[in-house]
Amino acid sequence: MKSGSNLEKILRAGHFAFTGELGPPRGTNVAVVREKAKHLVGMVDAVNITDNQTAMVRMSSWAASLIAIEEGLEPNYQMVCRDRNRLAMQADILGASALGIRNMLCLSGDHQQFGDHPQAKGVFDIDSTQLIGMVKKMRDESKFLGGADIDEPPKIFIGGAANPFAEPHEWRVHRLAKKVRAGVDFVQTQCIYNMERMRQWVKESVDMGLTEKVYILAGVTPMKSVGMARYMQLKVPGMDVPNAIIKRLQGVDKKKVADEGIKIACEQIEEFKEMKGVAGVHLMPIEWEHKVPEIAERAKVLPRPVV
Amino acid sequence: MIVAERKPFEEVRAMVKDFKKVLTVGCGTCVAVCLAGGEKEVGVLNSELKIARRMEGSPIQTGGVTVERQCDMEFLEELDGIVDEYDAIISMACGAGIQFIAERFPDIPVFPGVDTSFIGVNREVGWYEEKCRACGTCVLGMTAGICPVTMCAKGLFNGPCGGTNKGSCEINSDQPCAWHRIHERLAKQNRLQNILDICPPNDWRNQTPRTIVQPGYKDRLAAFGIK
After folding, report:
1. pLDDT-derived band of residue A119, with 50, 70 and 90 as boundaries?
2. Which residues of A touch B (CB under 8 A)?
């Protein structure tokens, strides 16, 4: 065991993992975090706590992660390269591990231009691949990036992101390979709607032997409305929403669109359970935490295994 | 070259509002080429200042000189006899030139007439593009001559992020994704291996003021007590 996290145990035991997401509040409203957390307890193996998501200031990811622990959830502490240099990152990694955080997701981060402080100086001292390598060095070699010894290394299960859809397509599997070489233990993918492309990317990953070294968690976000599907298709970079998804949502009664969205998500999850090379699903129901129990139930991923 | 933009006139006007005799110094090199601080722009700024100050009833006397390069003391010498007649200087050079003028004439207030923007290229007359951030650790050999520090909005070193958008950057569909282009060019040159290997964290060498002494000049400068 590299970290002893629940997520690591579940994956190592060969169970199909199921992770969720929780966005910290835009303030000190702890009650909101606790309320969101309640819907997720017992439903997921770990929950991603986002880090200034979409470049908007929010309660820090490590702080919200600690609240999640208090509520009985295992956090997957997200850290973006946009807001911290290598000193601050390493300090936060030590602090997070010392206080019981055992999973981390290493990300580049959305560009600050998208957020509520577009004038901010983006840090990007290191990139996400280098961050993965840095955490691995800290954990496995007990060394800081600068080379000095660490007094008690952090215990972290190292995660990264993967996007099977962005172009050039042939590069995507190599990008994953680089993260694997850097030391990533698991990746969570961008929201998947183009299943054909996803199957292709997973197959390439299997063929390259990557899935022997990394657990791939397929990203699933149920569509809540036709408007959301259209927005994701046109406005969200790196997202691939086939027209067939939009047509299918348009084909049902207006009141049933959200339900159809969940149905599509559940069908995807069923397929991922059988897909060679996929070790689990990462469910990202955007501001829909209260729907997670229903989705988990309908996707037949309950009860969550205890290892 | 170094590319600059003229400062908004109101900003310049506010900086020199308390001065009656102002010398505007242009620079005949980079900022002249990018139409921000050459001889012509010196003339334009001085005319604007005179008109504005006359209209507010507080006339200003201006002088204009454009030197070959403000980043070279040799060319600043020619200002020595002139500046004493003025109570302030507006330098229309890049930040380097402005500071060199301020250093040569430490008793006279010096104000910037331009905002220095970037190291870039002349794409077309009046159209300039940033190309280099002077990070001090050039990786262009690895990246097929496309700078990831400058051209990638996140300055990534290990391939496109998830926000690459059909060849464009996530920040703007008019901005090409640097890594998409790097991949494309390396693939054509059959050199993709360059970016399959992990690029380690960068050694940022632009975090403290830098000085370079060319090896052949070390002894000569040492004679003047310069290390």
Report:
1. very high
2. 81-82, 86, 108-111, 113-114, 122, 124-130, 133-134, 145, 161-163, 166-168, 171, 174-175, 177-178, 181-182, 190, 237-238
What's the ipTM? 0.91
Best probe of the A interface among B133, B154, B177, B191, by most A CBs < 10 A, is: B154
Query: Which chain B residues contact residue A108 at CB under 8 A?
Result: 154, 156, 161-163
Task: Catalogue all structural domains in chain B, each as residue range(s) with its CATH number.
Answer: 2-118 (3.40.50.2300), 135-196 (no CATH)
pLDDT of residue B227: 66
* Exposure b/e, A280-297, CB count within 10 A at least 16 = b: bbbbbbeebbebbbbbbe
Domain range for A170 is 6-298
Nearest to A68 by CA among A104, A108, A21: A21
How confident is the model over A157-178, as a mean pLDDT?
95
Query: Would A247 be classed as within a structural domain?
Result: yes
**Position A114 in a domain:** yes
For B138, other C-beta atoms within 10 Å of its C-beta total 12
Q: What gap in Å lies between CA B227 and CA B225, rounded to an integer? A: 7
Domain count along chain A: 1
Q: Which two tokens stand for residue A188?
A: 């969570």
